[in-house]
Amino acid sequence: MTESEVAEAERLVAEEGRRKLLELGYDPTSFWEQQVVWGDHDSFQHVNNVRYVRFFESGRIKWMTSLGDEIGGPEKAEAMLKGNGISLILKSISVNFKRPVTYPDTLLIAHKPHTKNTFSSAHTSVGGAEKNGSRSPDSTEPEEKKLKLPKTHFHALGIAYSYAQRRIVTESDSVLVWYDYDRLTKCDPGEKARAVLQRRLAEGLARQHEAAAANASS
Q1: Which of 92, 124, 138, 199 has the most CB atoms less than 10 A away?
Q2: Are β-strands 153-162 and 185-186 bridged in parallel, bridged antiparallel, or unpaired?
Q3: Beta-strand (E) ranges in 24-104?
Q4: What is the pLDDT of residue 167?
Q5: Cα dist. 119→62, 67, 131, 154, 196 in Å?
Q6: What is the pLDDT of residue 124?
Q7: What is the 3-state secondary structure (H, E, C) of 70-90?
Q8: Which of 95, 102, 98 is nearest to 164 (CA)?
Q9: What's the pLDDT score for residue 218?
Q10: Which InterPro entries match (predicted)?
Q11: What is the largest CA-CA distance in the chain?
């Protein structure tokens, strides 16, 4: 293949990955391409598990920057990155390793907010039955309550999509806390910040529903 043909093939693979993650409801402003380097390997000849925590961190910071920019423009985004005033702090993270990754590769990292009622594995259609250990929403609970995020914290799903394997290789679930770095305490970030996050949650779920409906009719 010529250099231009290789570049076009790589572009199409990346485009396919982005489309798949959009259909799964991931926030496009969180998309982060993480190049795998030889030094990411361990003695078992695959990317060391610890590396993924850093990969998800890089994607999470990219996402946090976009949140700050929407909440209050570039100045707010910069303040959140430097821990000035109200920003986010990581409380916990869990990682589910699905397939080993080797060099060379590029991982598309993405995040999306979720509540316990909207949680679903990357391979589960919204509104469907439980699959791969995911939890189905309680159909008796009001829709508004299902989509309601807590005031001081929220869960975020993370995902790593391999361009080389053209599939999801790692997933994560983290708890992010709104934190006042000046007062060193968790806090309510305010109505605007909550509205921004709430809207992104709703938009991600809408994309999932649309993709599921399209797949069902095809």
Answers
A1: 124
A2: unpaired
A3: 32-36, 86-97
A4: 97
A5: 22, 21, 12, 12, 19
A6: 41
A7: HHHHHHHHHHHHHCCCEEEEE
A8: 102
A9: 76
A10: 4-hydroxybenzoyl-CoA_TE, HotDog_dom_sf
A11: 58
Which among 56, 157, 37 has a CA at the least distance from the CA of 108? Answer: 56
The helix, strand and coil proportions of the chain, stated in percent and rounded to the nearest 5, come to 40, 25, 35
Number of Cβ within 10 Å of residue 206's Cβ equals 12
What are the residue ranges in the chain where pLDDT is below 70? Answer: 117-146
Partners of 170 in the beta sheet?
97, 160
Within 8 A by CB and 6+ apart from 84, the residues are 181, 182
The one-letter code for the residue type at 185 is T
pTM value? 0.87
| Terminal Cα distance for the chain, rounded | 34
Nearest partner of 87 among 150, 158, 181, judged by Cα: 181
Strand positions, DSSP E, the chain: 32-36, 86-97, 105-114, 153-162, 167-180, 185-186
